[in-house]
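Record type: monomer structure entry
Structure origin: computed from sequence
Chain ID: A
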Amino acid sequence: MTGDGGRTVTLRDARPDDAPRLAEIWSTGWLDAHDGRVPDALAAHRTPQSFVERAPGVVRHTRVAEVAGTVVGFAATVDDHVDQLYVDASARGTGVAAALLADAARVAAEAGHVQPWLAVVPGNERARRFYERQGWSDEGPFDLRVDVAPGVGVDVPCRRYRLAGPGPSAADG
């Protein structure tokens, strides 16, 4: 696909050797989206090193976007949940996030889930506007249980967004 600005964007399955780049994008993007918007008990566990440690575990559920051979974003989809969606700051506003989100919906649909969902923390208005432009609907508040250590979780107030209407079919892909 060609993104805004004429750059060719390639979507592919993540590989184990992508984990360091995923951690870099994830750490920076998470801080941008969540700093001051999540409970301190969660923020204390989200250090740059925590993303390095967690990234290998999400590779098997992840699709990446590449531009000129460099990973610039990723989406991790588990069943019907778009669990993570992050784009490097250099690629924001280029269509990469929209391509990854549509691809994540396709992945969920191929697994039999026609209406995937995702969570957005209150106060992340940029993300909320983006998801709404992409056809996702705000279903209201809920608490998302986030594991921060073995046997330790934090309830994070969020808004649940769901893809409005049937998602893309495998035939659309």
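Annotation 1: The helical segments are 19-34, 40-43, 48-58, 96-110, 125-133.
Annotation 2: Residues 4-172 form a domain with the Aminopeptidase fold (CATH 3.40.630.30).
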